[in-house]
Design brief:
Helix content is 51%, strand content 0%. It has 82 residues and is mainly α. The longest helix is centred in the last third of the chain and has 42 residues, at 35-76. The chain has one helix at 35-76. The chain is built from 1 helix and no strands. The N and C termini lie far apart (113 Å).
Amino acid sequence: MTAAEPQPEPAEDLPPEPAPTPAAAPPTDFQGLSIAAMEADIEALMNDKMSQLDEMLAGLELLVQKIEGDLDEIEEVPDPPQ
């Protein structure tokens, strides 16, 4: 003989399914913004940061040139005789 299969519980014994949650409303801070406006703000910020980076790189290039010039001057000075 085969063992009896358990019978599923009647539907009335199951807990009720939770009600679906409504979609969350977007924060009020973002309601007036559009994707194009956000992209423009990001582009402006990136341009500002890139120009700052260009200035820093130019400063580093000047510093390297100065150090190379100083090294050239040191190499040109002969060692004193001993």
